[in-house]
């Protein structure tokens, strides 16, 4: 799961617990001391990243391997400080469209307390077009 992928390692992915074709995902992360700012509180960008990743997994589960979910908009509301330890990011599709979909998600601690909630507008991009554009961009660089 997280092995060999530096983004997953940086984010502290432990495992993808579940995904389903209805557009749901559940991922476990280890919030680390190195991800904290003053007072031992996890920096908000990691929290956003965890929920965003869960929404991407939900979108991939719903739409199959031929799409790349690209976040167009992400809004995160923080309810409580996130501390080092196990955190669970869950996401689900709220409204599905052909090219654009709307997802929601939250982050909980091991006790089930909701620490943050998020909403996202996701572009369902064609995998072949994304790969071709990335290849062209890196060749020209």
Which features would summarize this protein structure in a list?
141 residues, alpha+beta, 6-stranded antiparallel sheet, two-stranded antiparallel ribbon, globular
Return the structural class.
alpha+beta
Query: Number of helix segments?
Result: 3
Outline the biggest β-sheet: 6 strands, antiparallel
Basic shape: globular
List the uncertain runs: none
Number of strands: 8
Order of helices and strands: HEEEEHEEEEH
Range of helix content: 25-40%
Strand order of the largest sheet: 1-2-6-7-8-5
Q: Estimate the mean pLDDT confidence.
A: 94
End-to-end distance: 31 Å
Gyration radius, rounded = 15 Å
Strand content: over 45%
Brief write-up:
The protein has 141 residues and is of the alpha+beta class. The protein has three helices and eight strands; from the N terminus they run αββββαββββα.
């Amino acid at each position: 799961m997280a092995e060999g992928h530096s983004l997953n390692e940086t984010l502290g992915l432990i495992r993808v617990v579940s995904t389903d074709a209805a557009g749901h995902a559940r991922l476990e992360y280890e919030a680390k001391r190195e991800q904290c700012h003053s007072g031992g509180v996890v920096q908000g960008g990691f929290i956003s990243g965890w929920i965003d990743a869960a929404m991407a997994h939900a979108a991939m589960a719903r739409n199959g391997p031929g799409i790349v979910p690209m976040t167009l908009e992400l809004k995160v509301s923080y309810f409580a400080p996130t501390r080092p330890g196990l955190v669970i990011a869950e996401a689900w599709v709220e409204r599905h469209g052909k090219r654009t979909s709307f997802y929601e998600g939250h982050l909980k601690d091991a006790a089930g307390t909701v620490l943050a909630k998020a909403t996202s507008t996701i572009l369902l991009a064609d995998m072949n077009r994304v790969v071709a554009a990335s290849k062209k961009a890196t060749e020209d660089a």
